[in-house]
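Q: Predict the bound structure with guanosine-5'-monophosphate.
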Amino acid sequence: MEKMYEIIREIKENQNIIVAGHIMPDGDCISSVLSLSIALERLGKQVLSIVDYDIPYQYSQLEEVARIRKVDDVINSIDSCDLIIVLDSSSPDRVGKLQDFLSSKKTIVIDHHITNENFGDLNWVDDSFSSAAQMIYRLNRSMNVTYDSKLATINLMGIATDTGFFRYPNTTSEVFKDAYELSLLGGNIWFISQMILENNKPERLKLFAHVIENMEFSNEGRFVHSVIKYEDFQRFNCTEEDSSGFVSDLRAIRGVEVAVLVIEYPKEQVHVSMRSKNSFDVSKIAKMLGGGGHPRAAGCSFKDSKVEEVREIVVKEISKILKDLKVIDEER
Ligand code: 5GP
Ligand code: MN
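A: Predicted complex:
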């Protein structure tokens, strides 16, 4: 936790602070950015909250989401900031256009990804935390930030979403302790779950039906993969954000160890989402292909690429490793 105290010292010395999350933001990213931004404002700082990407529609029920800006919209204010704090991002390309400013400003990185490249001047990276939001909770409490039910709910959201609503193996007793404290402070888990889990658009479910139609299994049913092409998003009147969560549903299929969803959005920009259940380390494959993530949830992106070619490359790599793993298991 020594790093955390260094960060507190650094925050004390700066007045104008940018708090940034990653492109393709998820619940943890949005929660962390808002929780730290609100906290720093309560400590009297000027804060600019940046996520250089559209925020998925589910989160619009949080009025604080409106404070999050894209880089182009605040380009003139960036220069007057003294410090950038980057959250939940394992590499500098994850912050979109803000990446261009990282070398000229003092940068702090707070993250729980094992693949983090430690690209800040000060890096607090600890993969024993379930979520960046849990790290922000510890940081905020150590800075004596006052919590009301709004901040507690926003902060709890990232812990809930990154643990799959307290189901994944990263749901440690420490997670329950911090979540318990946040619920005592007014954090409302039902508000969060209805906003995220009980808020499905019919178009999105039709897109998911398409994903199911396109499933292919290999390695005796231990590997499932599917694809969404840009045309499919258009046909079902959906955008990329609507596909979030699908890959976890693929992993939930009986007997599946690895699930992959290859997404093309927009045309020829391809994102690969990978999930595993028990033993396969998808972060290694993601890293090898220029991405990153966690052992059980990782991803990578390809520019100017054909979606079927990307699918073929990823499927080949994963099938091969799964086959070798099976041989090792059988020889054991
Ligand atoms: P998702 O499959 O939900 O897009 O991402 C799963 C995990 O992998 C997240 O923790 C995310 O931060 C990481 N991840 C996804 N895509 C990329 C990528 O292109 N680069 C890096 N470094 N990490 C990624
Ligand atoms: Mn996270």
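A: The first strand starts at residue 16 and ends at 20.
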